[in-house]
Design brief:
Blueprint (H helix, E strand, L loop, with lengths): L1 E5 L3 H12 L3 E5 L11 E8 L7 E8 L10 E4 L6 H10 L6 E4 L6 H8 L4 E5 L2 E6 L2 E6 L2 E4 L10 H10 L3 E3 L4 H22 L5 H9 L2 H19 L9 H8 L2 H14 L1 H9 L3 H17 L5 H19 L3 H9 L1
Helix pairs in contact: 5-7, 5-11, 5-12, 6-10, 7-8, 7-9, 7-11, 7-12, 11-12
C-alpha cells in the first residue's frame, strides 16, 4: 500500500516504521515550520509486544520519506483533535487524495466528524502504542493489536486493505460495539488517570509522576473513583455503558480490590508501564482532562473527585508556566 502519515509524531511514526518494515511505501507530510521538517532518518528503540507479551527490545533505523505524491491508498491522521481541521485543510490545499484512518482521540459527534472530512472516506481507529521523540531518536512501545471500527458500521470502501495492512505487520484488530463511543470512554478513562496523577505529581516530570502513581495503592484508589465519575460523563452523552463492561470491569470493583489489582498489573506488565512513563506531553494530557471536565460541567454531572483533581492540576500547570521566563514559555507554546 502507499501510505501518507501526517507529521512525524510518535504514533504516526511508530506505525509508519512498522508499515515500512512490512514492505509498504510510507511517506510523511511534515509542516515546513516543524523542527523535523528536514529529518531524513530516525533512530528507533522499540519495545515490541507483537510476538512477546512482555515486549522484546530492539534498535533500528527508520528512513523518513517526505511526501512526493498526490494520491495514496491510505492517509493516517494521528494528531490532537484541535489540529484535525488544519490537517484536512492542508490536504485539500495540496490536492492530496486518499481515504483517512483517523487514529486519535476525537470527542466530537459523528456529524462534526463528517463536516471535518467534507466527503472524504474516513475510518475510525485507536492506536495501542506510545513513546516519545527526542532529537532524532524515537523511543516507543507497541502492543499486538489496535482498535478499529467494525466493518458493518464503517462507511469505508477500502476496509479489507486496512485489515490486510495491519495483518502484514503482525497486528491484530479489536472491534468495540461503537468505535466513537469507545474513544470517548477511553479519553474519559485517560482524563481520570491524568487529572489525579497531575494533582499529586509534578506536571513537568511526567515520567516520575507516572512511576509514583503506578506504585501507590492510595493514588490508584483515587484514580478508580475519578474514572467512575468520568465514565458517568460519557453516559450523559447517551452512551449505554453496559456495552463496555469489559473496559470498565476493574473500575467497578471495590477500591480495596481494584487498586491493588492495578498496582500488580503495572508491576508485571512492562509494556503498560513503558507507555505510562513515555507519555510526556503535559499539554496534551491536560487538554483531554479539560475536554471531559467541560462536558461534565455542561451536562450537570456530579464528579467531585475528578473536578477537584483537574482544577488542582490545571492550577499547578498555570503557576508553573507563570514562573517560566517569557522566551522559554513562548518556545514551549510554539512547539
Amino acid at each position: 500500500m502507499s501510505i501518507l502519515v501526517i507529521g512525524l509524531g510518535v504514533i504516526g511514526t511508530t506505525y509508519g516504521y512498522l508499515f515500512q518494515k512490512a514492505g509498504h511505501r510510507v511517506e510523511h507530510l511534515v509542516r515546513k515550520s516543524s523542527a523535523r521538517a528536514a529529518a531524513g532518518s530516525l533512530e528507533v528503540e522499540i519495545l515490541d509486544g507483537r510476538t512477546d507479551p512482555k515486549g522484546s527490545l530492539s534498535r533500528d533505523q527508520y528512513n523518513v520519506h517526505h511526501r512526493r505524491r498526490t494520491s495514496y491508498d491510505l492517509i493516517v491522521v494521528s494528531v490532537p483533535q484541535g489540529r484535525i481541521t488544519e490537517v484536512m485543510a492542508d490536504l485539500r490545499t495540496g490536492g492530496i487524495q486518499g481515504p483517512v484512518l483517523l487514529f486519535c482521540g476525537f470527542w466530537g459527534e459523528r456529524e462534526e466528524l463528517d463536516r471535518l472530512m467534507a466527503g472524504r472516506a474516513v475510518l475510525l481507529g485507536y492506536p495501542v502504542a506510545g513513546g516519545s521523540i527526542t532529537g532524532e531518536r524515537l523511543t516507543c512501545c507497541v502492543f499486538d493489536h489496535v482498535m478499529l471500527e467494525r466493518r458493518d458500521r464503517a462507511r469505508f470502501p477500502g476496509y479489507e486493505q486496512v485489515e490486510a495492512l495491519f495483518g502484514s505487520c503482525g497486528i491484530g484488530l479489536e472491534h468495540p460495539h461503537d468505535m466513537l463511543e469507545w474513544i470517548w470512554l477511553h479519553m474519559a478513562i485517560n482524563a481520570g488517570v491524568g487529572a489525579v496523577a497531575a494533582m499529586y505529581g509534578d506536571v513537568e516530570d511526567t515520567t516520575r509522576t507516572a512511576e509514583q502513581l503506578m506504585g501507590s495503592s492510595r493514588m490508584l484508589a483515587q484514580v478508580v473513583r475519578a474514572i467512575r465519575e468520568t465514565s458517568r460523563i460519557v453516559a450523559s452523552r447517551g452512551v449505554d455503558l453496559k456495552r463496555y463492561r469489559g473496559e470498565l470491569l476493574v473500575y467497578r470493583l471495590p477500591t480495596a480490590v481494584s487498586a491493588p489489582l492495578m498496582k500488580r498489573m503495572f508491576a508485571r506488565n512492562l509494556l503498560t508501564r513503558r507507555i505510562m512513563t513515555l507519555h510526556g506531553n503535559t499539554a496534551d494530557l491536560l487538554f483531554v482532562c479539560r475536554t471531559v471536565y467541560e462536558q461534565g460541567r455542561a451536562n450537570g454531572v456530579s464528579a467531585p473527585i475528578f473536578y477537584r483533581s483537574y482544577e488542582a492540576a490545571q492550577d499547578k500547570a498555570t503557576r508553573h508556566d507563570q514562573h517560566l521566563p517569557g522566551m522559554v514559555r513562548g518556545r514551549n507554546e510554539t512547539a
